[in-house]
Amino acid sequence: MPLDFNSDxxxxxxxxxxxxxxxxxxxxxxxxxxxxxxSHIATRLGFDRSTTSTSAYTFCRFxxxxxxxxxxxxxRVHVKAETQNANVIVLVGSxxxxxxxxxxxxxxxxxxxxxTGTDTVRDVLIKGxxxxxxxxxxxxxxxxxxxxxxxxxxxxxxxxxTDTNSGHLVADERAISTERLTRLRSNPVHLAKDRPQCLFSxxxxxxxxxxxxxxxxxxxxxxxxxWLPVVDEGIRLYRYYVYVEAxxxxxxxxxxxxxxxxxxxxxxxxxxxxxGTFEQKGKPIIGLPSISPGGDFRYxxxxxxxxxxxxxxxxxxxxxxxxxxxxxL
Length: 329
Prior knowledge:
The chain contains two helices and 19 strands. By secondary structure, the protein is mainly β.
C-alpha cells in the first residue's frame, strides 16, 4: 500500500508534520497487514473419503504451526450427505466447530474454528458423523488462518497495536517516540513469524483404507512425490511434519528427501508425528521455472520413502506431509 498523505483515512486527523502524517499512514498499513495477511495450512483435492459411522469418524489429520494469536482457522470443505442428515466436525487443538449437512445436500461449506491455548503446534482433525443409514462424503478441503480484528495491547505473537487516536501525538507537533516507530518496523516481522506459509501438503485418510501412499515392502520405496517451491533468495529454513501409519505389530521406517537428498541425512523410525527442519537454496521466480540439478532452484523435488519391517500385517502408510517456511526473520 503506497503512502498517500492526501488519502481519506488521514482526513480525520489533525497532522502537524510530514513525519506524523507518515506515522499515521504506516500505523494503518500495519493494521491492514494484521487483518489481511492469511496463511495456508493444508489442502487436499480429490480426497473422496466417506463414512457411515454414527459416532465421530476421523477423515484426516494435519497440523497448524504457530498462530499464537489464536486467530480464526477457516476450513472450506466439499461434502455430500446421502439419504440422512450428517455433521462435519473440525477440531483445532481442543477447540471445535460442528457444521450440519442436510440429507441430499452436496456442496461447499466454510467452517470457522477459533483456537485456544498457547501451543506452538496443534493438530487439526476433520471428522464426520451421520444418522443411521446415511453416508457422508468428504471430497476436498483447504485450511487457512483467517485473521479478524487487531487486538489491543501486546499480542502473544509480539505484535503491538499502535493507537492512532492519541491526541498527544499531534498536540503542538510533538515528536513521535522511537519506541512507536520501532513497533511499525517490528510488527510485520512478528506477523510473518506467527503465520508461516505451508508450501507443500499431502493429506491422506486417517486410516489405512486404500493403497494410496502405502507399501508393504521391506526396502525403502517412494510412496509420494511432488515439488516444493523455493522462491526466497539464498538459503532458507523449512520445517516439515510427517505423520506415519503402520498396521498393528509393524514398525515403519520413513525417509524424506528434498532435492534428492535425505533431510538431516537420517530416517524416521516408528509411527506417529515426526518433525524437523532443513535448509534449501532458492531463487525468486523470474521467467520460467528452473528444475535442473545444481545451482539455484525455484522448485525442488520432494520424495517420501517408506519401508516395513515385515512384522505384523506389514503395511505402512503416509498419513500426512506438510512443509512450512520456517520463520527466521
